[in-house]
């Protein structure tokens, strides 16, 4: 049996292991449940496909334009009710709760070992009943303004944001998820209510639960909170056109209170086609194939003390944008960049090492399986896949089919120097 045949056989068993029950309610809400015998806790995530890149849309034929930071601001406001902050409700039940906003989704979360039904009611109730006033918005603008200033003190965040601003001229990926003090100052109750009608509709959301819980229990919670019955649909149209032509800027440098220079090298790639899971996985592999801990380049950089262990490659893809970035710290960042580009050109000519490809593929496979071994990861990864229109089993199946020839074909066009941006943060 070949390596690929053995991998495919293991993949079939793994796909069954990560499967979860699914039902789409008459309201359009997708409910996922992975009952995990032997676990005493429950993790629930209520997520919507609405993030920082959703800046322009039409709702029932009316155009709506949002300032940067709207999705993140709305996340904060959803946790506030006329009776008080939702986190105080969770504290009374003993649950641990959180929420976060990314470029393309917003998620509300809790973990608990008791009073599961009560916690589900808190989760579904707070997101399903938005409450905005001019006074509460003004108060939140001040709070988030302080949060934005905290992000400004993070070298990693500043570096990533600067790379996106170099790669893109107009795409909202270049704007901070939290926006700016000036951008969120323009928010109104009317804008926030438009967002909730458009993107917090059940048909745009997923409830994913895992642990000591059943699908029936989750569905009953939806019924109690008015999320079961059918409701009139809003017509929402949105898109983010891909940018053509050269990148916005080739290089940027600034200073911050850091111990040594921080730098990033990013490559703008063509946006992913809808459902192109194969190319998505291959692009995700590039960081490990070029400079991962198993590569000769990483060993050389590390042995010569040119980088620290945190130097790595990463990948992001959202509607209309796709990029691969390499970031880290170095006393000689320009030299590291030259060595990085040299290795990319060598791989483009000579091809990817087949043994390295198999090791990286197996590593990704292990990471996918590891994501469902804990209650919280099982729920969150299932929700993330659902919002992308697929399942974890689909991801494992697509990974099993990848070959080194696929990676070599990608290397012919990816990571081109003309699409490269460089950012460096020097110590003040």
TrEMBL record:
PANTHER family in the record: METALLOPROTEASE, ZINC-DEPENDENT PROTEASE
InterPro entries per UniProt: Metalloenz_LuxS/M16 (IPR011249), MPP/UQCRC_Complex (IPR050361), Pept_M16_N (IPR011765), Peptidase_M16_C (IPR007863)
Protein name: Peptidase M16 inactive domain protein
EC annotation from Swiss-Prot or TrEMBL: 3.4.24.-
Pfam families noted in UniProt: Peptidase_M16, Peptidase_M16_C
Location of the Peptidase M16 C-terminal domain: 187-364
Keywords recorded for this protein, A-Z: Hydrolase
Peptidase M16 N-terminal domain segment(s): 68-180
A Gene Ontology molecular function term of the record: metal ion binding
Organism whose genome encodes this protein: Subdoligranulum variabile DSM 15176
